[in-house]
Amino acid sequence: MRPLFFILLPGLLVAGAACQRTDRGSSAPLVGPVPAASVVTPDARLRETRWVLRRIASQPVADSTVGGQQPYLQITDAGTAEGQGSCNRFRGTLQPAANDGELQFSPLVSTRMACPALATETLFTKALQSTRAYRIQGDTLWLYGNAERSGTALARLEATPAR
């Protein structure tokens, strides 16, 4: 009987600790696992985040564009925008925003090399030039052509670790 008690005791202690709760009025944390539904991913930062292009309007963009490189956008804390269109690198600055959520790029300068993925790059560049607002939710950035952020997004980008 005694060996069985010593085998079951650790399991009972763990089970008892997992069920322990505190008063509703108490600020002490609950003990036990946090339900997955209550875990919230914080929004990525617009600046100093590498944003990889995933969609242009309603068209998906492949992870590795054939004949080019992965298109991305990165905005610095200093207000410069740079990235890779697919074939060519681009750079520009941000226009001052009057309200939260507004985003507008100055004319972007870019290299002019030809490659098979030039169509993707052209659409991405046009989307950036038409951007007037953005929305971030978790690790996703949507670019919109109007301040109301309505209608189909011009582009959808995903936060990835900076290289």
Automatic annotation (TrEMBL):
Transmembrane segments: none annotated. Residues 44-148 form the DUF306 domain. InterPro entries: DUF306_Meta_HslJ (IPR005184), HslJ-like_sf (IPR038670), Hsp_HslJ-like (IPR053147). It comes from the Bacteria. PANTHER family: DUF306 DOMAIN-CONTAINING PROTEIN (PTHR35535:SF2), HEAT SHOCK PROTEIN HSLJ (PTHR35535). This is META domain-containing protein. The lineage of its organism: Bacteria, Pseudomonadati, Bacteroidota, Cytophagia, Cytophagales.
